[in-house]
From TrEMBL:
Protein name per Swiss-Prot or TrEMBL: Macroglobulin domain-containing protein
Organism (species): Maribacter aurantiacus
Length: 757
């Protein structure tokens, strides 16, 4: 079953109360290496620093793309938070494949003391998982401080019991290193590590096994790797002529080869071209003749990877501080590209992200441990970074997927296809034999007829798109077209469940500024909304407004109320129709059916006619309707009011007696109303907050200039958009995206506007 992977590109990583956290979601199918094109519910939650859920909202993903926003409102005090995005499929998996990213809410920067660097976590990780006696081994080293950050330039030595130095190493910027040696069961080995202050710490290696198989992966060139399997004579004699298998797998993809160890040989070696491996991550597992895994190693194949495609960017100044950006995809295929762009002031401190779309889809789903800076391995292509990536994979040990979970705990299917909100209803009345139950959703013009059985009181509507704020209007209609209010019980299930992030990183992230913390007082960073709130008052219009405008189909502002003057000028409603550009003909010689015909004078087509929003199959029913019986009407002769109504639309609404009652009361007399509160979150258009200043240091460090979530590069690989530069001429641009063929884009650039343009 495909496991969709999720990446959210957010406009920043640091926010102030009153801002929105804007995001563009990308859903990826690792099995096909392309966007996950099935429609999916996307659950986006916010969690506190301990991993407890604060809020969760529902958005929709279509063709692998989603977008939305989370309001950073008063429930967010200053502190560290986590953003988590998941789908119904991912919620059913034992492994945590959801997207998780830290962000901060700040109001005043303060000095924060880092955790003590004296407390170190040091691990020695043999390649493949075990040290086997008399089999050459590569051992990965991981040195982290209490904050979970790698300790750089940590030197170490491997020493035998006799005092001889066997190997030496030095950690890189992420606290990782490796060394080679030949372990012997009878030997005793210790490591001496020297920190930057010259202090020596001593540790012992993992136990050396008497039996087993070792694995070594060596990159020979950009497109070739060598895999060597080794064992000692004792293990070789026990294996005999048994056939083992070497598997190259991930995400349901599998390639394998049989391994028959040559007689009297303790080593076997193979060379593989990149075409023989899966693109991207490969989980290389040796299994014995019974299918039990023996050793495992992660290998990244960049030969056919679609990671980090580059973009050319052209900047052009426009009028009134506007800036136009034109994006060009280098070496572009003909596939469409979907991008999002965050534009922040040059020198921003509000974009402190350590992951990008490439690391989220190609690396992080397959490793067990936290990766300190996953995007580092995908921001540029070089031999050093490839070696650093291989060192990272060496120190990760086995992949994060447990074989027992894969085979014994497959995801439950009941929630996999959730692509909307489920509505559960119950009738608290007896539906007549000639009655139907209708549902109007929000401002949609056409009702949904709910199929009901005479013997059942309950009904379910699966996977509907209900937005928060939508008004669901239920009514019953009989054979005469009369609408009546049903007595119902209605409940919506959006699939949101309270959960917890159990893999929260228990450390304090680096604070942006530790000097002069009072310089950035962000309490008045955003000005209040300029909307003027008036005291509640009741205004009585001299012109009494009628209360028959209860249509769920037509906006009240488009409906024309019948005036006294119209009643005198047009005694019959057909006279009003004639005055609005239609020819009305009554054939007195014909039978009743087809007696009245109405034709649009513009195109000769007949309009669609509705009486109280009930469609009429012919025009005969309005022949004798007097204008005095009508409260309001809607006439559109353009032919564009609704599909299939090229001749226009005519809707008349008969008077409702008791005009002094409130319109809501009148509406509720014919409709059961349910306001949606747990549906999809409506997606807002981006707007810049009302910053107190766009020129001070606070804005430079934490302000937002623009967010563009819906960039689509055409088949020629080109797109452009315009934004308000707020008077600035230098910006930092952060782009993430995905093409329909699965190519990934991640670009961070400084852009400058030529002031002479």
């Amino acid at each position: 079953m495909p496991r969709p992977l999720v990446f959210l590109h957010t406009n920043k990583s640091d926010y102030v109360q009153g801002e929105y956290l804007w995001f563009n979601g990308y859903i990826y199918d690792p099995l096909t290496g392309s966007p996950y094109n099935e429609r999916l519910n996307l659950y986006v939650g916010v969690y506190d620093s301990e991993g407890n859920q604060i809020k969760k909202e529902l958005f929709i993903s279509e063709n692998g793309i989603s977008k939305g926003q989370i309001k950073v409102d008063s429930i967010f005090s200053a502190g560290l938070y986590y953003l988590k995005a998941t789908t119904g499929i991912l919620q059913n998996l034992k492994e945590e494949d959801s997207f998780i990213q830290k962000f901060r809410v700040i109001n005043r920067l303060q000095t924060v003391l880092e955790n003590s660097k004296d407390i170190l976590d040091i691990n020695f990780l043999p390649e493949g998982g075990t040290l086997v006696s008399d089999v050459p081994a590569t051992v990965g080293v991981k040195v982290e401080n209490r904050s979970g950050q790698g300790v750089e330039k940590f030197k170490g030595y491997l020493v035998e019991s006799k005092g001889d130095t066997v190997a030496s190493f030095e950690t890189n910027m992420f606290g990782l290193a490796r060394f080679n040696f030949l372990p012997r069961k009878e030997g005793t080995y210790s490591t001496s590590l020297i920190d930057s202050e010259g202090r020596i710490r001593q540790f012992f290696l993992p136990e050396i096994e008497e039996r087993g198989i070792g694995i070594n992966v060596k990159r020979l060139s950009e497109n070739k790797i060598q895999i060597t399997l080794g064992m000692n004579p004792l293990t070789r004699s026990e294996i005999g002529e048994k056939t083992y298998s070497l598997l190259f797998h991930r995400d349901g993809l599998l390639k394998h080869m049989d391994i028959n160890f040559p007689k009297d040989e303790t080593f076997v070696s193979y060379i593989f071209n990149s075409e023989e491996l899966h693109p991207g991550m490969n989980i290389v597992t040796l299994v014995d003749n019974t299918g039990i895994p023996v050793v495992e190693r992660l290998v990244f194949n960049s030969g056919d990877s679609k990671k980090n495609n580059d973009l050319n960017i052209n900047v052009k100044s426009k009028k009134f501080d506007s800036v136009q950006l034109t994006l060009f995809a280098k070496n572009s295929s003909k596939s469409l590209k979907f991008l999002s762009a965050s534009i922040l002031p040059l020198g921003t401190k509000a974009y402190q992200k350590k992951k990008n779309i490439s690391s989220s889809f190609l690396l992080e789903p397959y490793v067990n441990e936290n990766i300190e800076h996953p995007s580092y391995y995908f921001t540029e292509t070089s031999k050093k970074r490839e070696n650093d990536l291989d060192l990272l994979l060496l120190t990760q040990g086995w992949s994060r997927y447990d074989w027992k979970n894969i085979f014994n705990n497959s995801p439950r299917k009941e929630n996999n296809s959730r692509t909307g909100v489920d509505l559960y209803g119950k009738l608290n009345f007896e539906l007549g034999r000639n009655e139907n139950l209708l549902l109007y959703i929000g401002d949609k013009p056409y009702p949904k007829r709910i199929e009901l059985s005479q013997d059942l009181e309950e009904f379910v509507l699966k996977n509907y798109y209900f937005e928060n704020g939508d008004e669901l209007q239920f009514t019953t209609i009989n054979s005469n077209g009369k609408l009546s209010r049903p007595n119902l019980y209605v409940r919506l299930d959006n699939g949101i469940r309270v959960d917890k992030i159990h893999s929260v990183e228990k450390y304090i992230t680096e604070i942006v500024a530790k000097d002069n913390s009072e310089a950035y007082n962000l309490e008045d960073f955003i000005m209040p909304d300029k909307t003027i709130v008036l005291n509640e008052a009741t205004v009585v219009d001299k012109k009494k407004r009628n209360h028959y405008l209860i249509s769920p189909v037509v906006n009240e502002n488009r409906v024309t109320e019948i005036t006294e003057r119209e009643r005198k000028m047009y005694p019959r409603f057909m006279d009003i129709i004639r005055s609005n550009g239609f020819r009305v003909i009554i054939d007195w010689t014909s039978s009743y059916e087809g007696r009245v015909s109405i034709v649009n004078l513009r195109n000769g087509l007949s309009p669609a006619l509705y009486v109280d929003d009930i469609f009429q199959v012919d025009f005969n029913n309005i022949e004798h309707i007097l204008t005095d019986e009508i409260g309001a009407y809607f006439i559109d002769k353009s032919g564009n009011a609704e599909p299939g109504a090229g001749g226009g639309v005519i809707r008349l609404y008969r008077k409702i007696w008791g005009e002094g009652e409130d319109v809501k009361v009148e509406k509720e007399s014919r409709f059961f109303l349910h306001n949606v509160k747990n549906g999809f979150t409506p997606v807002k258009d981006f707007h810049v907050p009302n910053y107190a200043s766009v020129t001070d240091d606070a804005f430079i460090n934490f302000g937002t200039i623009h967010w563009e979530p819906g960039i689509i590069l055409d088949e020629n690989g080109k797109a452009d958009f315009i934004f308000d530069g707020k008077g600035w001429t230098e910006f930092e641009l952060f782009i993430e995206g995905m093409a329909s063929d699965g190519s990934l884009f991640s670009t961070n650039k400084i852009i400058r506007v030529d002031s002479s343009q």
